[in-house]
Amino acid sequence: MIEVSHVRRAFGTLQAVDGVSFTAADGQITGLLGPNGAGKTTTLRMLYTLLRPDAGSIRVDDVDVLSDPLEARRRLGVLPDARGLYKRFTARENVEYFGRLQGLDEANLQRRVDELIRRLEMQDIEHRRADGFSQGQRVKTAIARALVHDPRNILLDEPTNGLDVMSTRSLRRYLLQLRDEGRCVVLSSHIMQEVAALCDHIVVIAHGRVVASGTAAALLEQTGASSLEDAFVEVIGSGEGLMA
Amino acid sequence: MSAWITVFIKEVRENARDRRTLASALLYGPLVGPVLFAVMMVFIMGQQRDKAEQVIELPVVGAEQAPNLVTWLQQQGVVVQPALDDPEAAVRDQAEDVVLRIPPTYAEHWTQGHTAPLDLIYDGSRTHAATTVRRIRALLETYGRQVAALRLQLRGIAPEVIAPLAVVDRDLATAQSRTGMLMAMLPYFLILSAFVGGMYLAIDTTSGERERQSLEPLLITPVSRAQIMLGKMLATSAYAAASLMICVAAFMVSLRQIPVELTGFALALPLRTALLIVVVVLPIALLAASTQTVVAAMAKSFREAQTYLQFLVLLPAIPSLVLVVNPMKPALWMVLTPLFGQSALIGELLRGQSVSFAAILGCSLSTVLVSMLFAVLAVRLYQSERLAISG
After folding, report:
1. How far apart are CA B288 and CA B201, in angstroms?
2. SS3 for B370?
3. Facing residues of A10 across strands?
4. Residue B145: enclosing H or E segment and its boundaries?
5. Where does residue B125 rank: exposed (0-12), middle (13-18), buried (19+ CB within 10 A)?
6. If B61 and its partner were Cys, which of A2, B83, B213, B239 is the partner (CB 3.0–4.6 Å)?
């Protein structure tokens, strides 16, 4: 469970995040939807302690992110915007390195890596060096390394960016599995179809603020719009940056 | 297992798989010095010896004025060559190193017992001619002294009257101390190899990792930035140290390749001296890694880091050059100054002098201390938000 309340962050004179609050519950997929530049990535970066908020508080499973960032990170599995791999390591070695950094003992580590490779269908790239991986193979490896320590809370920044249709479909299936295991999944996206198809709870962000939140149905009802697209345009104020 | 060990092992392993890193850290870096050094030594020593032992060929203008002098020179092994029309031009055009001109007034002064003039024409700025000029001058002075002694004896005066002093050269330079003088540049090559050996890793593990977008995921793991930095810095140190040891070993081999007949004494780096040198210079691996990590963490991109670090490599040249130009006995301040201390102590070891354990300890401790200060600075840089954000 992740609770964000009144979080603000500025870069120079630019107020990137201007008082964002939301709660992401366990067993749900929460989607942060907004156009490019709305403050989604900055919000996520504050969640996973890479950036410090200027104001506000963030709790991950009742751990205060600001006062105990190491413990908060232990409870998070993160697929950040930057998803570079070590090209001279195989997919398996990439994941193992992060498992060791998470403090897994060797037996536990091998068991987890085997399981992730099976569940993410990575057997074909397990022993191949990451140099020359396709975008889909890279994302799979990045997700495996983010989840190697079996975190209860999972953050994904634009997870389907650059993926082809098949990879996107299998990723969505996997995220639904994680949700059904009772985990708290938060993802950001600027593609409304994706958010609508996947998320139980939608938080619409524009200009650094939460402009609407709820289920897809609730958003429709709230705006009185006839389609989801109209509803989003209605709450954001323009359709700019929302195209898939 | 501590996280910094995990980071250390990963960086050492990953970079060992990169042929370019391996070649620059463990091949070009450490081997350039010893090879260049041996080639330079053979060249310079060969040139000096040639000049010192070569038969002197000396064009003499106005030889008919002083037949006795010319005959004497020939007896001393000088090959007297015919006169030139314009001796100054010949020296200026580098056709001749040195020309002896006997002015027309010579014979007259000589027979009257006055001081007879001789012109030795050469270009003092051309250092390679200096040995020849020195030898000819010595010959002429010897001839002058012999004639003076004869003249005094003719007048019934003991020649000792005009030779109140008898200076005998007793050069105390041992073969090894002479080697040390020649090898004043060697510390520079050793220290350089440490800087070159670690350079690629320092860039790759910071700006390289950020540019390849893998730094952000790494910093999200529940490992403190200090541990991440420590693992990376020590991996850089390990490569620098490996480079250093290869460099010392290469010097042991390359110095033995220089022929004894060229230098007059055997140039060698005995195993004991080599091991002591490794001990003295090893802390430089830490200094190189910590300074390079700081610079790489400050740089905004891989290219920028590369540019800065190429300048940083010139830093260890400063103390070595100072000591080459102005050799001095290692004072306390020098021993305790990183880079300076190592240069001075290696110099002493190469000259065959004993170096006290306290000096090695003091030099190493001060270097480790300075490295730690840089490491602290590197941790601060790692903790800044700017380092983490790749986009």
Report:
1. 11
2. helix
3. A15
4. helix B130-154
5. exposed
6. B83
Closest CA to B216 of A85, A72, A126: A85
- CB contact, 8 Å: B19 with chain A? no
Give the SS3 label for residue B100: strand
Question: The tokens of B181 are what?
Answer: 């003088």
Answer whether A46's CB lies under 8 Å from A97's CB: no
CA angle A116–A119–A125, rounded 5-degree value: 70
> Residue B332 carries which side chain, given as an amino acid letter?
L
Select from B7, B217, B388 the Cβ nearest to the Cβ of A145.
B217
Q: Which H or E run contains B209?
A: helix B209-211
Å from A23 to nearest chain B CA? 21
- What size, in residues, is chain B? 391
Q: CB under 8 Å to B111, separation ≥6 — which residues?
A: none
Contact B220 A73 (CB under 8 A): yes
B288 phi/psi in degrees, rounded to 5: -60, -50
DSSP state of B266: -
- pTM greater than 0.90 (yes/no): no
- On whether the CB atoms of residues B188 and B314 are closer than 8 A, the answer is no
**In Å, how far from its chain's centre is CA A1?**
14
Could you list the pLDDT tens digit for every one of the 391 residues in chain B?
Answer: 789 999 999 999 999 998 888 888 888 888 888 888 888 777 766 666 666 667 888 899 988 888 889 999 988 888 888 888 888 888 888 888 889 999 988 888 888 888 888 999 998 887 778 878 888 898 899 898 888 888 888 888 888 888 888 887 776 655 555 555 566 778 888 898 999 999 999 999 998 898 889 999 999 999 999 999 999 999 999 999 999 999 999 988 888 877 766 666 666 788 888 999 999 999 999 999 999 999 999 988 888 898 998 888 888 888 877 877 776 777 888 889 899 899 889 888 887 788 899 999 999 999 999 999 999 999 999 998 888 775 4
DSSP B176: H
Three-state SS for B25? Answer: helix
| B224 → chain A, closest CA residue | A70
Task: Give the separation between CA B188 and CA B191, rounded to whole angstroms.
Answer: 5
- Give CA–CA dist A149/A71, Å, rounded: 13
- Residues in B 29-68 with any Cβ partner in A closer than 8 A: none
- CB-based contacts of B264: which residues, under 8 Å, 6+ apart? B175
Tokens found for residue B321 = 């050059």
Determine whether the interchain pair B18/A88 forms a contact, defined as Cβ–Cβ distance below 8 Å.
yes
Residue B151 structure tokens:
């003249």
